[in-house]
Structure to design on (468 residues):
């Protein structure tokens, strides 16, 4: 029994010993693994430290390289920009030179044509050739002013709001006395002096005469070459284009000014004291040019008309002429950019002339009136001439069931209609118009009823408008 027990004990001891051995081995393995891990960690830390020490140098080198690259790229870009600018400059210079040379060529051609026209005697044989040269001249001038054969943009003028019943422009060379005349006519304070170019902008004033309100515009004095832009001439002449009447003021000491002014006005596409020619041109696709007339046209024949139309590239059209025209009139109709305005020629500084000088000027210029604004001579007469030239008529308005207002007439223009009268009162009168009753020169009998808005009213008519 004792032996059995000892054996048992020995076995247990062995087991414990083996367990202890296993645990010790495991501990050794764990310890070795820990050491290995620690070694790896230490090695990694060493590498990190080394990399940290090396990295600033590498970063600095890479930064320097990047800077060099960026600098090189900037230099390249700057060079490219400079080369582009240089090329653009050269191109613009070449374009300017070519434009200038083209303009010079056009100017030379215009001068040559003008010389040819002036040196050619006008007769039936030369009629066609002169007409063709005038058509060519008009197209060259159009190219010179717009840079192409087509009609260009509208010219800009001084910003002046139209007011009153009509507008009158005082047109003349510097120091012709326009500002003094404006002051006398309207009471507007426009600067005056005994030297040129006192007025530098457009100065408006209002003339009140016979119940009419007439806007008078004092524009800067024009100079030779104004139509081509000299001395802000284009802005001045654009105001002239929008006026109802042009008052040409000529210095008594410089009667030759009128010819120069008329030339500049003509060049700016304004036709003075003329009505628009009644010429109808209807284009078609084939069958050539057919010309019809209701009046004789001794100054222009069919061959000249055809040559002018072909110069304007019109090959197929029906032409109906209702006015006696010449080549210039036909060219104006084809261009379609002309304004037709009445004018007055007034000689200023009358007090500086003797009777003989006045007679010579009368024969040469055929002025409407001599005045001296400084001495207030001829001013009242000028007001009457302006009123009559604007073809004003007085219309007396009557309310339904009341007497007409005979004290303050409505100022209208000759040839205007009941429609124009309604529009001047208010657009609602036109929209709600039912009929009008009339008394006076345009009525067949007193109290005549008319539903016709196109009825032409006359001076001193009494009008009663009925609305819906």
């Amino acid at each position: 029994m004792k032996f059995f027990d000892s054996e048992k004990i020995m076995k247990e001891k062995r087991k414990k010993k083996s367990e202890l051995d296993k645990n010790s081995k495991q501990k050794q393995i764990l310890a070795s693994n820990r050491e290995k891990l620690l070694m790896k960690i230490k090695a990694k830390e060493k590498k990190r430290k080394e990399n940290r020490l090396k990295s600033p140098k590498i970063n600095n080198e890479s930064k320097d390289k990047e800077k060099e690259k960026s600098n090189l790229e900037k230099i390249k870009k700057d060079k490219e920009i400079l080369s582009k600018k240089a090329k653009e400059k050269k191109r613009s210079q070449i374009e300017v030179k070519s434009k200038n040379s083209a303009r010079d060529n056009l100017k030379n051609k215009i001068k040559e044509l003008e010389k040819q026209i002036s040196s050619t005697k006008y007769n039936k044989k030369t009629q066609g050739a002169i007409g063709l040269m005038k058509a060519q001249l008009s197209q060259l001038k159009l190219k010179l002013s717009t840079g192409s054969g087509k009609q260009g943009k509208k010219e800009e003028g001084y910003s002046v709001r139209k007011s009153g019943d009509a507008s009158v422009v005082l047109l003349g060379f510097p120091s012709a006395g326009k500002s003094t005349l404006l002051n006398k006519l309207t009471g507007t304070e426009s600067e005056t002096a005994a030297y040129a170019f006192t007025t530098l902008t457009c100065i408006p004033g209002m003339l009140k005469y016979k119940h009419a309100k007439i806007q008078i515009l004092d524009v800067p004095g024009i100079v030779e070459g104004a139509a081509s832009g000299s001395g802000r001439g284009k802005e001045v002449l654009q105001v002239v284009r929008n006026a109802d009447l042009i008052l040409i003021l000529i210095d008594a000491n410089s009667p030759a000014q009128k010819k120069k002014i008329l030339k500049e006005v003509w060049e700016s596409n304004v036709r003075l004291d003329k009505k628009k020619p009644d010429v109808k041109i209807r284009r078609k696709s084939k069958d050539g040019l057919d010309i019809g007339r209701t009046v004789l046209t001794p100054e222009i024949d069919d061959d000249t008309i055809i040559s002018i139309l072909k110069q304007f590239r019109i090959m197929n059209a029906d032409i109906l002429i209702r006015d006696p025209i010449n080549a210039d009139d036909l060219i104006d109709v084809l261009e379609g950019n002309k304004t037709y305005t009445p004018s007055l020629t007034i000689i200023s500084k009358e007090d500086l002339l003797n009777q003989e000088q006045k007679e010579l000027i009368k024969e040469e210029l055929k002025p409407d009136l001599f005045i001296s604004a400084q001495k207030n001579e001829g001013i009242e007469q000028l007001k009457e001439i302006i009123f009559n030239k604007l073809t004003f008529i007085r219309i007396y308005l009557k309310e339904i069931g009341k007497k007409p207002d005979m004290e303050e007439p409505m100022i209208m223009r000759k040839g205007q209609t009941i429609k124009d009268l309604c529009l001047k009162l208010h657009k609602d009168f036109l929209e709600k118009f039912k009929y009008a009753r009339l008394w006076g020169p345009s009525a067949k009998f007193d109290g005549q009823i008319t539903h016709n808005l196109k009825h032409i009213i006359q001076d001193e008519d009494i009008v009663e408008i009925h609305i819906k």
In short: The chain has eleven helices and 16 strands. The CA atoms of residues 355 and 361 lie 10 Å apart.
